[in-house]
Write a structure and sequence with these properties.
Strand order of the largest sheet: 7-6-5-8-9-10
Largest sheet: 6 strands, parallel
CATH architecture of one domain: 3-Layer(aba) Sandwich
Radius of gyration: 36 Å
Number of helices: 32
């Protein structure tokens, strides 16, 4: 028996030597032999567990720890190591219990407190995790890993400034801790200190050039800075390090979309979904991309796939509604908005999208009410004005009160809704009208406005206020009660005569043209066309006048070619002479017809009661209604709509045929 004990003792000593020498397989075999010979030898069982853990045999290691602890339940080191094994098996509640037992029997090591913090973090018990890290640091103040993990926990608690301090302390101890540099960048990103975040990511990559997450997060900060090309390069760095990095592929697609490199974006989304077909966010973004490409049925399918993974995603449901609207499936779109709002009742964009659809289909009663959600919609450019004076929405008497009516969105909106000024004045109020500076002079011709102020100038005293686009709600406007009498704007006789002199004697019809609107408008790619697309109109026997401001480079090249040809003395472009809308209005007053895409000039011509032909997309802006060739808002307007092909060619062909007919009949000739 003594010889056997001596042999086991020697074997155990040899096993320890093998373990410390890194020969884990040899150590495991020796421990197994010892345990087989003497199952109750604690040191052999504990060493076997440690070795198995080192070999990645987590379940076997846990079994060995349990056997060892059955003999010595209060052995702190075994309890600690058992906690490590349970953590690696993602059995976090049991790991926490094992750490607590180790600490209860007297283990007061920094590692035990820190590991306990890691387990609490995994259980999302962040405040308790923070306390554990603090106890670890009380034992060892320079414990870099605890400082680093403490920073991550503070980040989860959205205490970003404190997280930065913790990361900085970790980096003081270990300047080469790439993860701390990268996560420091993440905290700075959350604080919107994007340039500083980039510097942190760069330091992480100096330590470890193939750090995929640092490349990825660097790309995210570059995207926030709208440096899309550089962001794409950063995502490429992440993908070089980790080719199957689904999030990098997806975010690369997002940046390619911003650059309008749509086919490349689609390819990136497709690769991301090959890696992770169940990624609801990528399917959602793919849907947005397909919508932009007017591939609406495919966009709808992508949204639906996304919703199978997250059926209550309000943003996906709302965007799905927008796509259904483009397919003219209006009831289905409203149902999708309803689902979005059931999931998130305060989701402003869904309320807003519903408002636009209800107004389009003529449901003004609910549409105007929903339209008020625009103030909470972050995608709307104009922020809500925080006046101390109360908002007037029609319920209160306003006679002998001064009310400020103020513009809020685009020039066209101001022109369209200033028609309500006389109605407000008719209720006995003194009306101050605040508008964008280019509209100020024109708006002095609106009946009922006591004073017209350019936005940015000091405002006089007033008692109440109302945004222009809330006036239809205030007046309970329905289709049959739209104040459609025109003209409600006019131009001074002298300005009209100046343009008449400039044109000279009139020998044929004068026709104004507008082919593009504000390039910053979110729907510009749909509603604007190129000057080249309008070329079929220009061989008609008429004088054509460009009313276009801020002509785009491609169109300017075409315009220069046309206006420099001697035989095109029937084409005028007066961009430099149109300093504001009053100049444009005076010019329009000398024309017989305006042909325009959906932009502010179309509204201006309608407000002046000038014949105006408006070119509209298949599913137009709500104010042009559906399936009619006249306008509820402008009696002199005629509407030319895209057909199911969503192409402009057929629209221009119909306009050309109608224009030719009118010219042949001698209309508009003075």
């Amino acid at each position: 028996m003594a010889n056997l004990t001596l042999t086991l003792s020697q074997a155990l000593s040899h096993a320890f030597s093998s373990y410390h020498g890194g020969r884990l397989i040899e150590a495991e075999q020796l421990c197994q032999q010892i345990v087989s010979a003497k199952p109750d030898l604690f040191d052999a069982l504990h060493l076997l567990a440690v070795v198995q853990s080192g070999l990645g045999k987590k379940a076997a290691a846990l079994s060995s720890y349990d056997r060892a602890l059955a003999m010595r339940p209060d052995f702190a080191e075994a309890l600690f190591n058992r906690g490590v094994a349970l953590h690696e098996l993602q059995r976090f509640a049991e790991a926490l219990e094992s750490y607590d037992r180790a600490l209860a029997v007297g283990l007061d090591s920094a590692e035990a407190h820190s590991n306990r913090g890691n387990t609490l973090h995994q259980l999302e018990r962040y405040v308790e995790a923070l306390a554990s890290y603090d106890r670890a640091l009380a034992v060892r103040p320079d414990y870099a890993e605890a400082l680093y993990n403490r920073g991550i926990t503070l980040h989860e608690l959205q205490r970003y400034e404190e997280a930065l301090v913790s990361y900085d302390r970790a980096l003081t101890v270990r300047p080469d801790l790439a993860e701390a540099h990268s996560n420091r960048g993440n905290a700075l990103h959350e604080l919107k200190r994007f340039e500083e975040a980039l510097a942190s990511y760069d330091r992480a990559l100096m330590v470890r050039s193939d750090f995929a997450d640092a490349h990825f997060n660097r790309g995210n900060s570059l995207k926030e800075l709208k440096r899309f090309e550089e962001a794409i390069e950063s995502y490429a760095g992440a993908l070089n390090a980790r080719p199957d990095y689904a999030e990098a592929l997806a975010n690369r697609g997002n940046n390619l979309k911003e650059l309008k490199r749509y086919e490349e974006a689609l390819a990136s989304y497709d690769r991301a979904l090959t890696v992770r077909p169940d990624n609801a966010e990528t399917l959602h973004n793919l849907g947005i991309m397909l919508h932009e490409l007017k591939r609406y049925e495919e966009a709808l399918a992508s949204y639906d796939r996304s919703l199978t993974l997250g059926p209550d995603n309000a943003e996906t449901l709302s965007n799905r509604g927008i796509t259904l609207k483009e397919l003219k499936r209006f009831e289905d779109a409203l149902a999708s908005y309803d689902r979005a709002l059931a999931a998130r009742p305060d989701y402003a964009e869904a309320h807003w999208n519903e408002a636009l659809l209800r107004l389009l289909i003529g449901d003004f009663g609910r549409g105007w009410v929903k339209y008020e959600w625009r103030w909470k919609n972050k995608t709307i450019a104009a922020p809500k004005r925080n006046f101390s004076q109360p908002l007037w929405l029609g319920a209160d008497a306003i006679d002998r009160k001064t009310i400020l009516l103020h513009s809020e969105q685009g020039f066209g909106d101001t022109i369209q809704f200033c028609r309500y000024v006389p109605l407000v004045a008719a209720r006995g109020a003194r009306v101050i009208l605040e508008v964008e500076r280019p509209l100020q002079e024109l708006m002095t011709t609106v009946a009922g406005a006591t004073q017209v102020v350019a936005k940015g100038n000091p405002l006089p005293d007033f008692d109440l206020q109302c945004p222009l686009l809330s006036l239809p709600l205030a007046f309970g406007t329905r289709r049959e009660t739209i104040p459609s009498l025109t003209p409600y704007l006019c131009t001074p006789v002298r300005a009209r005569n100046n343009w008449q002199t400039r044109f000279g004697p009139k020998t044929r019809a004068r026709i104004g043209l507008v082919w593009s609107g504000n390039p910053g408008h979110k729907d510009d790619h749909n509603r604007s066309i190129s000057l080249r697309s309008m070329m079929p109109l220009l061989d008609i026997d008429a004088t054509f006048v460009s009313l276009q401001r801020n002509v785009r480079a491609d169109d300017m090249a075409v315009l220069n070619d046309l206006t420099t040809l001697k035989e095109r003395s029937d084409l005028f472009h007066f961009d430099d002479a149109l300093s504001d809308f009053s100049d444009t209005a005076a010019l329009i007053s000398n024309l017989d017809l305006v042909i325009s895409v959906d932009t502010s000039v179309a509204h201006l011509a309608g407000a002046l009661a000038k014949p105006v032909w408006v070119l509209l997309t298949f599913v137009p802006d709500w104010r042009w209604s559906l399936d009619r060739d006249d306008s509820l808002w402008y009696p002199t307007a005629r509407l030319f709509r895209q057909d199911e092909t969503r192409k402009w060619d057929s629209v221009i062909a119909r306009v050309r045929a109608a224009l030719s007919e009118h010219i042949q009949r001698g209309r508009w000739i003075a």
